[in-house]
Design a protein that fits this description.
The protein is built from 13 helices and 15 strands. It is an alpha+beta fold and 518 residues long. Among the domains are: 73 residues, no CATH class; 73 residues, no CATH class; 149 residues, Heat Shock Protein 90.
């Protein structure tokens, strides 16, 4: 009966089921992530279309403003020419007709103009919104002459500002006198520019303050300058502009915004934080479930091991108790036989078996109890077991022991004898009562090794560890407890190790018992 094999099958089945559940979780989550990713990209593409339309509107507005400025400059040129025409001297006997130039001059009701001579004296102005009441409220005691001086200073500053912006015409009235006509954009053009600036600010605000939008960077393709982004300067400086753009390029395919005029912008974008967190969700679930499974497994394994220990200890003590009665009886029978005329060699062999039964009883009584380890020669302990086995196994099995010197190790002799006997009997069964059993005792760097080799059928490599598990047995009637007890005696009581050193089918198998010297 192989209980361990059935348990392994159940473990494998449960593991496959768990992996299947994890795979389904990964598949479902990845499908959800893919759908959300597609929706985010669709939102970004819609947003990019809106950007393109707004930027196209801004470009169109800028072209319109440029055309309006050109038209206003032509109007100003015409206005200056009309003024020059009126200023011309005419013969005394001829009355000039100034109706047309006066009409041109009078029609300028929108473009602000300041007339200033070459000595920066203000000669006149038109369409200037200058509120003189402000000056009167600040200085009510000012006279008209003083107030005019303040107004002229204000006009002079405006005129010089417009000249600096190249919005002026110079007219030479006569030699030594040049008049400067400084002008600015019309009121209507200023109003339109404010609306355009408001539109641009709204676009920037929508880009920068849109927290619901995924992280985006809008870059000019030619200059590679960032036009707009909803990332902070700190975030960009931390990673670096080039590195950040490369990261976004690898994350998602960028969107090209083509203005059909030779200029293009590139929109790089990242996944939203929520989408990134959702991508890690299956791993988090897997980790949590795995953690619970591991904790549960450890807890139940501890309980199971404790229960097994109690069962084994109880069975061992009960076995020792049950053996006590027939042992006492056998000892009485031996004493009776000694008083009779019986062959002494028979009595001697019977006494050996009785002594052996006493050792077995002592072994079982020690299971579950504190074990006392005493320093002694491990060679003598092993040799005693082999001496007992030689006459009780097939004569076709040769038992050889090799040890170079005395090996003093702290151990419990009855338990070590049990370990060696158990492994040796398994070796005899593997050789099918014909072969060689070699036992070598040697030490290496603080450890004493007991190598037990047989020439039997061998052990498969995949069974090197499982043969020490409770319930594992290659025999049809085996309970699979022998090697499990061997491992417990060596590992728990002696703080050593026992394992299969090597095995080759139908050639040689070697078990190694490792005991610490200290």
């Amino acid at each position: 009966m192989n209980l361990y094999s059935s348990k392994q099958k159940w473990k494998i089945a449960l593991l496959i089921l768990a992996l299947g559940l994890v795979a389904v979780s990964f598949f479902v989550t990845n499908a959800i992530v893919a759908k959300i990713g597609e929706r985010e990209r669709a939102r970004v593409e819609q947003w990019a279309d809106a950007i393109q339309q707004k930027l196209e509107l801004v470009r169109l507005t800028n072209r319109t403003f440029s055309q309006l400025r050109d038209r206003e400059r032509r109007e100003m040129q015409l206005w200056v020419d009309a003024t020059k025409e009126i200023s011309k001297e005419s013969p005394l006997d001829q009355i000039p007709d100034f109706s047309f130039p006066l009409k041109i001059i009078d029609e300028n009701k929108d473009i602000p103009v300041i007339l200033m001579d070459n000595e920066d004296n203000i000669s006149g102005s038109r369409n200037i919104d200058l509120d003189t009441s402000v000056f009167m409220r600040k200085s009510p005691s000012f006279k008209s002459k003083d107030l005019q001086g303040i107004i002229d200073d204000s006009l002079r500053k405006l005129a010089k500002k417009w000249v600096k912006n190249e919005k002026f015409f110079n007219v030479e009235v006569f030699e030594g006198l040049t008049m400067t006509y400084a002008y600015n954009d019309s009121r209507e053009l200023v109003r339109l520019e404010k609306e355009r600036d408001s539109l641009i600010q709204a676009f920037n605000r929508e880009l920068i303050e849109n927290e619901e939008l995924v992280p985006v960077i809008l870059v000019d393709e030619l200059s590679n300058n960032i036009i707009g982004t909803n990332l902070s300067d700190k975030e960009i400086a931390k990673t670096g502009k080039v590195e950040l753009i490369n990261q976004l390029k690898q994350q998602n395919e960028p969107i090209i915004i083509d203005f059909k005029s030779g200029s293009r912008n590139i929109l790089y974008f990242d996944d939203s934080p929520e989408l990134k967190q959702l991508q890690y969700y299956p791993y988090i679930v897997f980790f949590i479930v795995g953690l619970f499974v591991l904790i549960g497994y450890l807890v139940f394994s501890t309980f199971r091991r404790a229960e097994q220990n109690q069962v084994w200890a109880g069975m061992a003590k009960e076995t020792a108790h049950q053996l006590g009665t027939p042992l006492s009886s056998l000892m009485a029978w031996i004493q009776l036989l000694e008083s009779q005329d019986v062959d002494s060699s028979i009595i001697k062999e019977m006494q050996k078996d009785v002594d052996r039964l006493e050792k077995v009883t002592d072994r079982f009584s020690k299971i579950g109890s504190s074990t006392i380890l005493k320093p002694s020669d491990i060679n003598a302990t092993v040799e005693g077991v082999l001496d007992y086995l030689r006459p009780r196994i097939s004569q076709q099995i040769a038992i050889k022991m090799e040890s170079k010197r005395e090996q003093i190790v702290k151990h419990n002799a009855p338990l070590i004898e049990w370990v060696v006997e158990n492994i040796a009997k398994n070796a005899v069964d593997a050789m099918e009562n014909k072969g060689v059993l070699d036992v070598i005792v040697h030490d290496v760097k603080g450890w004493v090794y007991i190598d037990i080799s047989d020439t039997g059928k061998g052990i498969a490599a995949k069974q090197f560890k499982t043969i020490f598990k409770p319930g594992f047995s290659t025999k049809k009637r085996g309970w699979g407890l022998g090697l499990s007890l061997v491992k417990r005696i060596i590992n728990e009581y002696h703080k050593g190790k026992v394992y299969v050193l090597q095995s080759e089918s139908n050639v040689r198998t070697t078990f190694r018992i490792a005991l610490p010297k200290k």
